[in-house]
C-alpha cells in the first residue's frame, strides 16, 4: 500500500466520523427546537395531570403506603368540587410556594454585584494575573466558582479566555470551550453557596412534603459535596484541555484578531480592592456572630446552626447581604454607582431578569398542587419505589444521572427540569429510605454534565457567536465536538465521586444525610 493511500484512508474515516457526529448533533438540535418553551411545557403538564387524574380515578388506580399501610387512591380533579378548588387556590399555591421569596431576595444582592461591574472585573483580574503554567487551571477554577456570580461567568469568561489563549499561542476556541465547559458543566460545584443552591431547594422541599409534610430541607444541604466536586472536576478539566482540546485545535492563523485584553482602569482596580476587603469583613462578621453558643443566629432551643436556625431560615437575606455589600462598595469606588437611583435601578433590573423564573414558578406551583391533590405523585413514587426495591444504590445513582443528563439535552432551564422531576424522584427515593438532599445532589450532577453540549442552554448561542468571531465557518456540530470530551470526562469523574461518597455514607451537606434515618 502506498504512503498516499495509507494517509488518505484515516482522513476519510475521520471525515465519516465527523459527519456522523454532526448529523447526531443536528438531530438533537432539531428535536430540541421542536419542544415548546418551558413555560408552555408546564401549562401542558398541568392539563395532562388534570386529565390523568380523571382517567386514573376512573380506573381505580391506588397504592399502599409502605410506611403507614394507608391505601392511597387517585382523585379526579375534573369534578365540580375540585375544579372550584383549582380556581380558588391558584393564587395561594403561587404565593405560598416554598422559598420563592428567598430566591428573589438573593437576586437583589447578586443583581447589584453583577450590574455594578464587580463580578466582571473580579473575573478578568483573577485570570490575567495567573502565571502561564497555571492559566488553564486558573480559568477552570474561576469558571467552576463563577456560577455563584449568576450570569457573569458564562458571559464574561469565554471571550476573555479566548484572548488569553491567543497570547499563549493556543487556539482561542480552545479557551472558549474550556471557560464555557467549566462555567456551565460544573454548575453544581462550588466552595460558596449561591443562587443555584437556592433554585433547586425551592422545588425539593414541596416534593419531599408529598411524603412527609413535616420534613425540613435547607439551601446548604449539598454544600459538602459541591465543595468536594471542585477538587475533583478541576484536574479533570485541566487534563482534558491540555491533553485533548488544545492539541486537537492546534494553532490559530490570525493571532492579532481579538488579542487585546481591555485593561482594568485604576479606579476599577481600586473598587475591586475595597470590594474584596468588604467581602472579608462581612464573612468575618458572620463567623463571629455565629460562634457564641447563645448566638441569635442559632436555634434558641438546641443551639444548632443548621436545623431550624435563624441562619438557615434566613439564608436568603444572608446571601443577599454577602453579595450586596461588595457590589455596593465596588460601584461607589469605581463610579458605576453615583447615587441611590443607580442602586434602585440595578435591583429593579435584577428582578426583571427573574421574570421567566417567576412565571415558571406560578405554573410549577399549580402542577405540584395538582400532584398532591390527585395523589398521582405519591402513587407514581410508591410504584417506582416498588420497581427499584432491591436495586443497589449504585444502580439508582447511575440511573438518575443518566435520565437527568438526557432530559437536559432538550430542556435548558435547570429549575424547569427539577420542577418536573423532583415530584417523582424525591418521593420515590424517600420511600426507599434516601434523604431529599441526596436525591437532589444526584440530579444536579446529571443536570450539569450535559450543560456544555446542549443547544437548549441559554448561553449556548452566545458562546457559539464568540467562537464564530475566530472561525466564521464553525458550525454547531464542530463547536459541540470540542465540548463533548468535557461532558464525558466530568460525567465519569463526578459519578464515581458520588458512588464513593455513597459507599462511605458521608452526608452531602449540613442537614443532608444520605439516608432518612
Distance between the termini: 68 Å
Radius of gyration: 24 Å
Taking the sheet with the most strands, its summary is:
2 strands, antiparallel
Helix fraction? Answer: over 70%
Note the beta-strand portion: under 5%
Q: Number of DSSP strands?
A: 2
Number of helices: 22
Number of domains: 1
Question: How would the blueprint of this fold be written?
Answer:
Elements: H1 3-34, H2 38-58, E1 62-64, E2 71-73, H3 80-88, H4 90-95, H5 100-115, H6 118-128, H7 135-145, H8 152-168, H9 172-185, H10 195-209, H11 223-249, H12 266-290, H13 310-313, H14 315-334, H15 340-352, H16 355-374, H17 376-388, H18 393-408, H19 414-431, H20 436-449, H21 460-470, H22 476-504
Antiparallel strand pairs: 1-2
Helix pairs in contact: 1-22, 2-16, 5-10, 5-14, 5-15, 6-7, 6-8, 6-12, 7-8, 7-9, 7-11, 8-9, 9-11, 9-21, 9-22, 10-19, 10-20, 11-22, 12-14, 16-19, 17-19, 18-19, 18-20, 18-22, 19-20, 20-22
Amino acid at each position: 500500500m502506498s504512503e498516499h493511500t495509507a494517509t488518505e484512508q484515516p482522513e476519510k474515516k475521520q471525515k465519516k466520523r465527523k459527519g456522523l457526529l454532526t448529523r447526531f448533533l443536528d438531530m438533537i438540535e432539531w428535536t430540541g427546537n421542536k419542544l415548546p418553551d418551558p413555560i408552555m411545557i408546564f401549562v401542558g403538564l398541568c392539563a395532562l395531570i388534570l386529565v390523568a387524574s380523571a382517567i386514573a380515578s376512573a380506573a381505580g388506580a391506588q397504592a399502599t403506603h409502605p410506611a403507614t399501610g394507608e391505601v392511597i387512591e387517585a382523585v379526579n380533579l375534573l369534578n365540580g368540587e375540585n375544579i372550584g378548588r383549582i380556581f380558588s387556590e391558584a393564587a395561594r399555591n403561587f404565593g405560598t410556594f416554598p422559598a420563592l421569596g428567598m430566591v428573589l431576595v438573593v437576586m437583589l444582592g447578586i443583581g447589584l454585584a453583577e450590574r455594578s461591574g464587580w463580578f466582571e472585573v473580579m473575573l478578568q483580574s483573577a485570570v490575567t494575573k495567573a502565571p502561564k503554567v497555571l492559566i488553564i487551571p486558573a480559568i477552570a477554577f474561576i469558571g467552576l466558582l463563577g456560577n455563584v456570580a449568576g450570569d457573569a461567568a458564562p458571559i464574561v469568561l469565554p471571550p476573555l479566555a479566548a484572548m488569553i489563549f491567543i497570547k499563549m499561542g493556543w487556539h482561542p476556541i480552545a479557551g472558549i470551550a474550556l471557560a464555557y465547559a467549566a462555567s456551565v458543566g460544573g454548575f453544581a460545584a462550588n466552595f460558596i453557596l449561591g443562587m443555584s443552591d437556592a433554585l433547586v431547594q425551592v422545588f425539593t422541599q414541596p416534593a419531599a412534603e408529598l411524603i412527609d409534610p413535616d420534613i425540613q430541607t435547607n439551601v446548604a444541604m449539598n454544600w459538602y459535596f459541591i465543595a468536594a466536586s471542585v477538587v475533583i472536576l478541576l484536574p479533570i478539566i485541566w487534563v482534558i484541555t491540555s491533553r485533548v482540546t488544545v492539541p486537537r485545535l492546534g494553532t490559530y492563523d490570525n493571532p492579532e484578531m481579538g488579542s487585546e485584553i481591555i485593561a482594568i482602569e485604576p479606579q476599577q482596580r481600586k473598587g475591586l480592592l475595597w470590594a474584596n476587603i468588604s467581602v472579608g469583613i462581612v464573612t468575618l462578621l458572620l463567623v463571629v456572630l455565629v460562634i457564641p453558643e447563645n448566638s441569635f443566629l442559632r436555634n434558641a432551643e438546641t443551639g444548632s446552626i443548621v436545623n431550624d436556625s435563624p441562619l438557615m431560615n434566613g439564608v436568603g437575606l444572608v446571601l443577599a447581604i454577602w453579595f450586596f455589600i461588595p457590589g455596593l462598595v465596588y460601584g461607589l469606588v469605581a463610579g458605576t454607582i453615583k447615587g441611590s437611583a443607580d442602586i434602585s435601578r440595578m435591583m429593579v433590573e435584577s428582578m426583571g431578569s427573574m421574570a421567566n423564573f417567576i412565571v415558571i414558578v406560578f405554573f410549577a406551583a399549580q402542577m405540584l398542587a395538582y400532584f398532591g391533590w390527585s395523589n398521582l405523585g405519591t402513587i407514581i413514587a410508591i410504584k417506582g419505589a416498588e420497581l427499584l426495591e432491591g436495586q443497589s444504590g449504585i444502580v439508582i445513582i447511575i440511573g438518575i444521572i443518566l435520565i437527568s443528563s438526557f432530559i437536559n439535552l432538550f430542556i435548558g432551564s435547570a429549575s424547569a427540569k427539577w420542577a418536573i422531576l423532583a415530584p417523582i424522584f424525591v418521593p420515590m427515593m424517600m420511600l426507599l429510605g434516601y434523604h431529599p438532599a441526596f436525591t437532589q445532589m444526584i440530579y444536579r450532577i446529571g443536570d450539569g454534565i450535559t450543560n456544555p453540549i446542549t443547544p437548549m442552554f441559554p448561553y449556548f448561542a452566545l458562546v457559539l457567536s464568540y467562537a464564530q468571531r475566530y472561525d466564521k465557518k464553525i458550525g454547531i456540530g464542530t463547536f459541540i465536538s470540542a465540548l463533548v470530551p468535557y461532558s464525558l470526562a466530568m460525567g465519569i469523574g463526578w459519578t464515581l465521586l458520588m458512588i464513593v461518597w455513597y459507599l462511605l455514607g458521608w452526608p452531602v451537606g449540613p442537614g443532608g444525610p444520605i439516608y432518612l434515618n
